[in-house]
Design a protein that fits this description.
Oligomer: single chain
Strand content: 25-35%
Structural class: alpha+beta
Largest sheet: 8 strands, antiparallel
Distance between the termini: 31 Å
Order of helices and strands: EEEEHHHHEEEEEEHEEHEHEEE
Number of strands: 16
Length: 299
Amino acid sequence: MTEAIKKRYEFTLLFDVENGNPNGDPDAGNMPRLDPETNHGIVTDVCLKRKIRNYVELVKANQPGYGIYVTEGAVLNNKNLDAYEYIGQKPEAKKLPKEKNLAAQLTEFMCKNYFDIRAFGAVMAMEINCGQVRGPVQLNFAKSLDPIFQQEVAITRMAVTNEKDAGKERTIGRKFIVPYALYRVDGYISAALANKPLYKDNQETISITQFSESDLQLLWQALINMFEHDHSAARGKMASRRLIVFEHSDMLGNAPAHKLFELVQVARTGNMPPRGYQDYEITINKDNLPDGVQILEKL
């Protein structure tokens, strides 16, 4: 059985976009998401988790233990059914088995086989019920360091779908971009949740979430490389620029997360609208680093 991580972590990731839409808002015609009060750009945690899932699925394709639970077009009940077949039980609609050890085995199977359940958790209490897991890895919304400018670009369509439309004037379309923005997202990794028992019988641990050291290293790789395999005409030029990790000396941690995040400061270096990563200066106040915490710069 793989051993779960034993230390708490927090991290700050800086990434940028050039002439692209990092996260369209379906409630606003797919324009780049923003805070309407400040005009700072926003990228949701769900969007970033999707990119992490896609990277893991790409580099760990078909490897045991690295399946991705939430994939495009997936029928989740069918994936849950695999767990019941593994323990030799038939599911009862919307209910877990009455025996606690069987219910724990279902959830253990899902954690063992799906990376994103081990990392982010999942609510699997659906028609075929495999319980729920609170994942040790969580992300905030990413926010741009400066207000963004949502630019609308006109494009023309040079081909038509039907022959009857061949003589018509070409259609004018629209796409939305951010000329440039640097985004910051802060995240948390709880060793306590990674080691949380799913079920105990006479103080014997039946199962744990088991987000392991190898899972942790894979997460760092995903945060660094997730944009490298996600390029598209809509997203423009996106890249991870800096990954700063705070490692605590034990499972519960040695300092509040917000105090660690405050040690990372990002400032503009000029008065013109930013158009590149070089327009920002990143400083880390290592002099005020709390005892028991060390900084690991992954990028």
